Amino acid sequence: MDKEVNVLALVKGEEKFIFLFDDDNRDETLRQLARFAANPDLDFSWYDAAMLSRKIRETVITEYDELAASEEFDSISIDDFA
Question: Whole domain around residue 66: which residue ranges?
Answer without folding.
Answer: 6-75
